[in-house]
Design brief:
Mean pLDDT: 96
Number of strands: 11
Shape: globular
Order of helices and strands: HHEHEHEHEHEEHHEHEHHHEHHEEH
Radius of gyration: 20 Å
Distance between the termini: 13 Å
Helix content: 25-40%
Largest sheet: 8 strands, mixed
Strand content: 5-15%
Low-confidence stretches: none
Structural class: alpha/beta
Number of helices: 15
Strand order of the largest sheet: 4-6-5-10-11-9-7-8
Oligomer: single chain
């Protein structure tokens, strides 16, 4: 028997717009699942009464909007008026905003039904979602392991069938790291692709908004909706017919694919690619070659990356509105990043930004011969809950780099990237790869991801899926 969460986002939207399923029915289904699997820590706040009221109001009208009736949630970095928004921090434990962020308003305008807040790391600063303010977010495949971060709750909600898809943010891998950890599709758009969360919201240009989904087709549909968000929409299309979902349905042929296991951290940290990550990379390369693409060594040799990224990440933390009294409430890594960032002088920051732009130009030039570049998504298997606790801030930062050394450079270069599971390890846990595209190359990435999914076939769901 097919349950509502068994349907893809594309299929759920079709059921909604045809009237086969009502917004209330779909909303109630997901609210029930969220309540039953709260031990995964995917949600930090649910708003069932508001969600059902919204669903009823939508159901009483004519379908409109690219996400009409689709249950979604805000990452706990997105303010929504009247709903506790804590930013994963004890320093904001009682914060209830009086106004919503533009992204929340725009998703409402697109017809979505908001179910609450998904968990994030404190102020989105880390690649694991285990903030001190609430219980850790857990991998639904292996609950003793963490979910990655910072969009850990969103990725777990999608993987466990608590949401049909999710909107995350990615400033150094925060969509792709958790998506790879729990075996769903994570898409980081190009800098400037979206009207909201464009990457131009801060001087470093790192953080962008993007989709987390169960398939390339679903990610394409959600990306089309995000590109068309009012009032600053870049494009519009009838629901389910936009260029990105179409790209996931169209087979690209004879593309040039670079392949590399090099990371820009190799000269500065102890990066070791585990056997399962290597197997996923080799498998994806072979499948792309079998599909008729020219797969060759990318011959990439980045230099000087670690020093510039340290400057950018510290500088981004310096802007978090925390006073001295808050430093006793935030986590040690947050306090260290904020304090180190505020010690930077103007010349340090300008030099870091100049180095970042030079790195961007070099990387685009190095990848120019390819339509996409294949690399591992993560270097290591999912880490146990608590693995990052008890270390110095410097060591905690290094451990995150060792886990996910292929993520943050994509943000610095402003490029699009997609991660997706391609194989399973010996325990059945999915293992992902990453494809990095040219500037504005999301359509190619979605097409290639769909080809890999077709070759892979369906992966099993985590145990909670069938419950």
């Amino acid at each position: 028997m097919t349950r509502l969460h068994d349907l893809t986002l594309v299929a759920q939207l079709a059921e909604l717009t045809s009237g086969t399923v009502s917004p209330r029915e779909l909303t109630a289904h997901y609210l029930d699942r969220i309540a039953r699997f709260s031990d995964l820590g995917a949600f930090v706040e649910t708003t069932p009464d508001a969600a059902l009221h919204r669903a009823d109001a939508l159901g009483a009208g004519t379908p409109h909007g690219a996400l009409w009736g689709v249950p979604l949630a805000d990452k706990d970095l997105v303010a929504r008026a009247g709903v506790a928004t804590r930013y994963g921090s004890r320093a904001r434990v009682s914060h209830v905003p009086v106004a919503s962020d533009p992204l929340a308003d725009a998703l409402d305008a697109a017809g979505a039904v908001n179910l609450g807040k998904t968990s994030t790391s404190e102020f989105g600063l880390t690649g694991f979602t285990e903030p001190l303010i609430h219980a850790p977010t857990r991998d639904p495949w292996r609950p003793s392991s963490g979910a990655g971060g910072s969009s850990g709750g969103a990725a777990v909600a999608v993987a466990a069938g608590l949401l049909p898809a999710a909107v995350g943010s990615d400033g150094g891998g925060s969509i792709r790291i958790p998506s790879s950890t729990v075996g769903v599709v994570g898409l980081k758009p190009s800098r400037g692709r979206l009207p909201l969360g464009s990457g131009f919201d801060s001087p470093d240009g790192l953080s962008v908004t993007g989709p987390i989904a169960r398939s390339a087709e679903d990610a394409g549909l959600l990306l089309d909706a995000l590109v068309g968000l009012a009032p600053f929409r870049y494009a519009t299309a009838a629901s389910g017919t936009g260029p990105f979902v179409a790209a996931a349905r169209r087979e690209q042929v004879d593309l040039r694919i670079g392949a590399t296991t090099v990371s820009p951290w190799d000269d500065d940290e102890d990066i070791r690619l585990d056997v399962d990550a290597r197997h996923a990379f080799d498998t994806a390369a072979a499948w792309l070659a079998d599909a008729g693409h020219a797969v060759t060594d990318a011959d990439w040799h980045p230099v000087g990356y670690a020093s510039l990224f340290h400057v950018l990440w510290r500088a981004s933390a310096a802007r978090i509105p925390l006073g001295e009294a808050d430093m006793d409430l935030v986590e040690p890594l947050t306090a260290w990043l904020v304090q180190e960032g505020r010690r930077l002088d103007a010349l340090d920051l300008l030099d870091g930004l100049a180095a970042a732009r030079a790195f961007e130009r070099r990387t685009i030039a190095d990848f120019a011969a390819f339509d996409a570049v294949l690399m591992p998504a993560l270097a290591q298997a999912p880490q146990p809950v608590g693995a990052y606790a008890g270390h110095s801030p410097e060591r905690t930062f290094a451990m995150q780099v060792e886990y996910a050394p292929y993520s943050s450079f994509v943000n610095v270069a402003g490029l699009p990237a997609i991660t997706l599971p391609v194989v399973a390890d010996g325990t059945g846990h999915p293992v992902s790869v990453q494809l990095v595209g040219r500037p504005g190359g999301e359509a190619v990435l979605l097409s290639l991801a769909a080809q890999l999914e077709s070759r892979r076939g369906p992966l099993p769901h985590p145990p909670v899926w069938g419950s």
